[in-house]
Design brief:
This protein is mainly alpha-helical. It is built from 17 helices and five strands.
Length: 392
C-alpha cells in the first residue's frame, strides 16, 4: 500500500529530475530513453499530466532525431517535418548515450560500447509501454498508435534470420541499418511479446496503424526458445512486471495463461538464487540502486498480481506449480519495502555509485515508492483526444 510519505518523496524526486534534465527550468534538455519511459509513467501516476506531455514531446524531438554532433540531421525516420510530427516513432528512438555510435567497420570495444549511442530493443519496449499508459491515462489516442508504429519498426529492425531461425540483436545502430551488438538480450523477445499484446488490446477503435499480428507471431516464436531464468535483480523485476501486465490483459480478455506460469516460475527461481548471494549486505558503493529498485518495482507488481489472481482468476487454484511459485514470491514482497526504504535515506544517495547513475536511480526510486503509474492499466475517463503538439 502506498503511503503519503512515499508519494511525497516520489513527487520531490520527480520534480528534481525534471529540473536537472531540462524538462523544467533553465538546464539544457538531457534525455535518456529508459529513464524517461519510467518518468512519463511516474508523472501520470502523480497526476502531473502536463509534465508527462512535455516529456513525451521532448523525447520525440530529441531522441527521435539525429545527434547534434552527427553529420546526419533531422528525424531518424527521414520523414519531412509535418509527417514526423504525425509519426514521431517511425524511425525508432536513440538511447541517449553520451558518445556517438560506433562507425561502420570500426572494431568494437566492449567497454566503450556501454557509452556509445544507438538503439536498444528493451528501451524501445519501455517507451511503447509509457506511450500506452499516456494514451490510457491522458486520453491521447495517438500515443497508442505511435507505440504500435514503434513496435513494428523495432521488430523489423532487431529480428534477423540467419540460418533460417529468427533471433534478435541486442543493440542496433541509430539508423537501424546494422547491428552494433549481435547477441540477443535474454528477455527482449518476452518484453516485446507482452508489450505488443498490451498495445493490441488497448488499440482505440478506428485509430489506424499496425495491427501487430506479424510481430506477435515472430515474438511468440522467439519466446518459445528462450530460457527466462535469471539471477539479475533488474531482470527478475522485469519478469514480475511482465507477469502482472499479462494478468491484467487476461482479466480484460481471458486466454491461455501458460506463459504466466512460466514467468512466475522463472522469477521465483531467480529470486531465490539472487538472495543466496546476500547482495543487500554489500556496501552501498558496491550496489547498483536502479537494479535493486527494478526488483522492488517487480515485487510490488507481484503483490498486485496476487490480489488480482485471488479475486479474478480462478484457474490458478488448479495449477499447484504456479501457486507454489506465487507463494514463494509473495513471501519476499517485504523485500520491496526494505530496498526502497534503504535508498530513500538521504545518506544512501550520496555515494559515488548513486551519483554516477543519479537520474535513473532517482526515477526508479520514485517508481518503487509510487508504482501505480507504471504498473496499473487505467483507462482514461476523459474524452479521447489527439496530442496538440503532434497533430498540428
Amino acid at each position: 500500500m502506498e503511503r503519503h510519505d512515499d508519494r511525497a518523496l516520489a513527487a520531490t524526486l520527480m520534480r528534481d529530475f525534471a529540473e536537472r534534465t531540462g524538462l523544467t527550468g533553465a538546464e539544457a534538455a538531457r534525455r535518456y530513453l529508459w529513464t524517461d519511459a519510467f518518468a512519463v509513467c511516474n508523472f501520470l501516476g502523480l497526476a502531473e499530466t502536463a509534465l508527462a506531455t512535455r516529456l513525451v514531446e521532448q523525447v520525440h524531438a530529441v531522441l527521435g532525431a539525429h545527434r547534434p554532433d552527427d553529420t546526419r540531421h533531422g528525424p531518424l525516420s527521414g520523414l519531412d517535418a509535418a509527417a514526423a510530427r504525425r509519426h514521431p516513432t517511425q524511425g525508432g528512438l536513440r538511447i541517449g548515450k553520451p558518445l556517438p555510435e560506433r562507425a561502420p567497420g570500426e572494431p568494437p570495444d566492449p567497454r566503450l560500447e556501454w557509452d556509445r549511442d544507438g538503439q536498444y530493443f528493451h528501451y524501445l519496449t519501455r517507451w511503447m509501454h509509457a506511450l500506452d499508459q499516456y494514451a490510457q491515462r491522458a486520453g491521447v489516442v495517438d500515443a497508442n498508435r505511435w507505440a504500435r508504429e514503434l513496435a513494428r519498426t523495432a521488430v523489423q529492425a532487431f529480428v534477423v534470420v540467419g540460418d533460417g531461425t529468427p533471433r534478435m540483436v541486442w543493440k542496433a545502430s541509430i539508423g537501424l541499418d546494422r547491428a552494433q551488438v549481435a547477441s540477443m538480450g535474454q528477455h527482449d523477445p518476452l518484453d516485446g511479446l507482452v508489450t505488443c499484446l498490451q498495445l493490441r488490446a488497448h488499440t482505440p477503435p478506428g485509430s489506424g496503424g499496425p495491427t501487430l499480428a506479424p510481430e506477435l507471431r515472430t515474438l511468440a516464436t522467439l519466446v518459445a526458445g528462450t530460457n527466462l531464468l535469471t539471477d539479475d535483480p533488474l531482470g527478475i523485476g522485469g519478469l514480475l512486471v511482465d507477469a502482472y501486465r499479462l494478468a491484467q490483459l487476461l482479466r480484460e480478455k481471458p486466454g491461455d495463461d501458460a506463459l504466466l506460469g512460466l514467468l512466475l516460475a522463472a522469477a521465483a527461481g531467480g529470486l531465490h538464487a539472487w538472495l543466496q548471494q546476500r547482495p543487500l549486505a554489500r556496501p552501498a558503493d558496491e550496489r547498483l540502486a536502479f537494479r535493486e529498485l527494478g526488483l522492488a518495482i517487480g515485487l510490488s507488481a507481484a503483490a498486485r498480481l496476487w490480489r488480482l489472481l485471488e479475486h479474478d482468476h480462478a484457474p490458478i487454484a488448479g495449477q499447484p506449480a504456479v501457486r507454489a511459485s506465487l507463494d514463494a514470491l509473495i513471501a519476499q514482497v517485504p523485500l520491496a519495502r526494505r530496498i526502497s526504504s534503504h535508498w530513500s535515506e538521504p545518506g544512501q544517495r550520496t555515494s559515488a555509485a548513486w551519483r554516477a547513475h543519479e537520474d535513473i536511480n532517482a526515477v526508479m526510486l520514485a517508481t518503487s515508492l509510487a508504482p501505480q503509474g507504471y504498473l496499473d492499466f487505467d483507462r482514461a475517463q476523459a474524452t479521447p483526444k489527439q496530442s496538440a503538439a503532434w497533430s498540428r
